[in-house]
Description:
two-stranded antiparallel sheet
Amino acid sequence: xxxxxxxxxxxxxxxxxxxxxxxxxxxxxxxxxxxxxxxxxxxxxxxxxxxxxxxxxxxxxxxxxxxxxxxxxxxxxxxxxxxxxxxxxxxxxxxxxxxxxxxxxxxxxxxxxxxxxxx
Length: 119
């Protein structure tokens, strides 16, 4: 019985190891590039339910950014306010065009940018 269990375990390990292999040549054409919204550390992210192309990202000291093309391009949507630090984001269940933002940095790393003014 031990031999059968050992053989099955060995077969399982070799199959799993084979399934994880890849050809490194596939990645040679990739170059490093900047992706994501401009700005600082992104603290909060929320996506529109049922629409994987629309997402919002809140930055520690850079406002709210929105993508409508799955993250390829981003635009700032929170420039009119004095509170640029975003700690939390939520989309209203009743209207996906309404985004709630909790201002103030969640992680108090830099007190100059941590100040918020509520939701």
